[in-house]
Amino acid sequence: MFGRELTVHFATCFIPFKQCTQCHILSHTTNECHRPTEYVCCHICGQLCHIAAKHCTKCPNVHQHKGLLCDCAQKCFNYIYANCPGTEHLAIDKSCLLKKNMRHTPLPSRASTNEAQPEPIPSTLTTNNTKTPIQGGQPLMSLLSLKVMSVNVHQNNNRIHTLLQKNDDIHILLIQEPWFGTIATIRSDNNPTGEPQLGAPTNSMWDLHTP
Asked: For the chain, give me the number of helices (H) and strands (E)?
């Protein structure tokens, strides 16, 4: 890029945690839930047959409320199922410690100490002499190597075909001032000779993305 070869790293996205929006359990997603579609569970109290919008009148302790709204202490029934202390939050609260623990990817087990040990994770990532800090010394996502090339072809069709055919070790090819012209002739009801179809050069080894 800009006359220099750079090594770029990109992040692989991950799902921070799984929680079903139907039963609010953390072990699966909504699409993976085995319960029937008419299953209803309140995320405030964990009781069945009513939703959170109707909790004020369906709360098991409704007769102890001091007003129209529910003033019961918040309890996460997922915490109760896991026998964890401190349930002063709702099951859908993103600050739930059970959800935070699910965000961390477990490290692979090492069967032998003779195996090659991974290099320590740096506190910064360096790209083009620019350092990017990593929170807590740990990356939030796994990093993979990526090679990018940027070339100005000055609207030359032959140069583009040469780049697409020979640079098979490049992951992303950025072409500036590309050639754009007639690549085929399509049938026309108004023009006996057909209509020109405009486009950019293509290659079966590449996916084309135009602005």
From this structure: 4, 7
Encoded amino acid at 34, one letter: H
State the pLDDT at residue 152: 92
Q: Are 92 and 51 in contact (CB under 8 A)?
A: no
The tens digit of pLDDT for each residue in 6-64 reads: 777 665 555 567 788 888 888 788 888 888 888 888 888 888 888 888 888 888 888 88
Candidates 47, 5, 119, 115; CA nearest to 56 is: 47
Helix (H, G, I), strand (E, B) or coil at 122: coil
Mapped onto helix, strand or coil, the DSSP state of residue 90 is: coil
In the chain, domain spans? 16-105, 146-199
Say if residues 173 and 196 touch (Cβ distance below 8 Å): no
Amino acid at 195: E
64-102 burial: b if 16+ Cβ within 10 Å, else e: eeeeeebeeeebbbbbeeeeeeebebbbeeeebebbeeb
pTM: 0.38
When pLDDT is averaged across residues 69-93 and rounded to a whole number, the result is 80
